[in-house]
């Protein structure tokens, strides 16, 4: 038997948990073709098939069931090792970590970072919000979280997940304009959007192309201004969908606008990847986005 790659065993566990290659690939952040190749590699190393692949999903073979049981135990051991490392890192990590991101992601992070301080009390976090990406090469920031993948060769990048958007209004607006919303009579509804200098933002272009919709009567220079306007009854506006769970007063007129989906990428300078404080923040953000994906984000 050839050397077995532990990462391939972890992928096998994910395939069994999901029951199908496509959903397992999506959860692993891989293409179905790549995941299928990794499964081929594992079966080649083990010398036998571990799952039978059918159109409706994947079923473990008798041999595979034994491997999966062992892999599950290995996974538990690996998790315990990681927990031990994390407890040590909590004491070793210290200093300031500067994160640069845009408005929606800044809100996303600041509303989810509280428990980080409990885990890493000696690490301070600065979240710097800007439309313009800060230079990681010139150390204007340690980490960037952006809806695009940087192309600089000296950066380490990681896809965290995807941000989705919908069209929302307040409960008061939903009740007052219930008939127009049910008919999607956009011409009869008030809207909130970006001001003229930001009218080329993808979300605002979509809003202004909505059939029959008037131009936003309230216009803001920043995204959280749109959130405030929508939440307080000024009209309908395009918002990140995670706000629906954070803001109890929001009602979705269009719950998901697929063409506005954005892949979210974390990047940092390659020279920082061994830093304990940086690793602590990166690992924590990975957990946060993983939880967001599991809740359907």
From TrEMBL:
<dbReference type="InterPro" id="IPR005119">
    <property type="entry name" value="LysR_subst-bd"/>
</dbReference>
<dbReference type="GO" id="GO:0003700">
    <property type="term" value="F:DNA-binding transcription factor activity"/>
</dbReference>
<dbReference type="InterPro" id="IPR000847">
    <property type="entry name" value="LysR_HTH_N"/>
</dbReference>
<dbReference type="InterPro" id="IPR036388">
    <property type="entry name" value="WH-like_DNA-bd_sf"/>
</dbReference>
<dbReference type="Pfam" id="PF00126">
    <property type="entry name" value="HTH_1"/>
</dbReference>
<protein>
    <recommendedName>
        <fullName>HTH lysR-type domain-containing protein</fullName>
    </recommendedName>
</protein>
<dbReference type="GO" id="GO:0003677">
    <property type="term" value="F:DNA binding"/>
</dbReference>
<keyword id="KW-0805">Transcription regulation</keyword>
<dbReference type="InterPro" id="IPR050176">
    <property type="entry name" value="LTTR"/>
</dbReference>
<feature type="domain" description="HTH lysR-type">
    <location>
        <begin position="4"/>
        <end position="61"/>
    </location>
</feature>
<keyword id="KW-0804">Transcription</keyword>
<keyword id="KW-0238">DNA-binding</keyword>
<dbReference type="InterPro" id="IPR036390">
    <property type="entry name" value="WH_DNA-bd_sf"/>
</dbReference>
<comment type="similarity">
    <text>Belongs to the LysR transcriptional regulatory family.</text>
</comment>
<dbReference type="Pfam" id="PF03466">
    <property type="entry name" value="LysR_substrate"/>
</dbReference>
